Sequence to fold (255 residues):
Amino acid sequence: MPQQNKQAWPYPEAVAHRGGGTLAPENTIAGFREGVRYGYRGAECDVKLSADNVCFLLHDDTVDRTSNGKGEAKLKTMAELSQLDAGGWKGAAYAGEALPTLDNVAAYCRAQNMLLNIEIKPCPGRFEETGRIVAQETARLWQGALVLPLLSSFEIDALRAAKAAVPALPRAFLCEELPADWRAILEELDCVALHCDHKTLTEALAREVKQAGYQLLCYTVNELARAKTLREWGVDSVCTDRVDLLAPQRPLLEQ
Fold:
């Protein structure tokens, strides 16, 4: 039986992708500030491990696209990563923005009462240790919180390790398109939710997921009309880059 049946889904209908969508540098505190500025009370971010096993935010396997650095993230210590400019690529207003640690993000989100979906984003070859350490650090950093972060990942091995390390943290299986064995995967990982690309979802599939007792989140939804359609299908939350377009203060179907 999916454990979310025991309590209501606590996460908001609209969730800010990578902190603040495309309006600020992704996976930075500046991004989270942008989400908060638009009234968002839920955000998503990507977390991986540095060479010295510090949890920090970055989407790609390399630092090239979103910083002034070069090379594989897994080969750099947190001290080295902290020297990079993770904001200048987005504009002079963000120059000098740091790659935040999970500790930094926890402090900011808890102070702002912002709920979090942490995507476990392992570097190649680090699936299990990333799942384990991210889960352990999440439990430590959100100790005593009324609503714990939701852990999600494309990597089943990472979710298995997260479940083994901290079973109490809620989990979601992340996929582009629902695999034929999605029910078995969710049951094995004791997930509360399934996250998928909205472009691959049909109304019939949405109904199947909901009837099976799971919550459903879709990414990356950047049009209000599409967000409304998904809500009509029973989708619980949408992750968006357009934090300026989807108003988080009102139900999507009333916008």
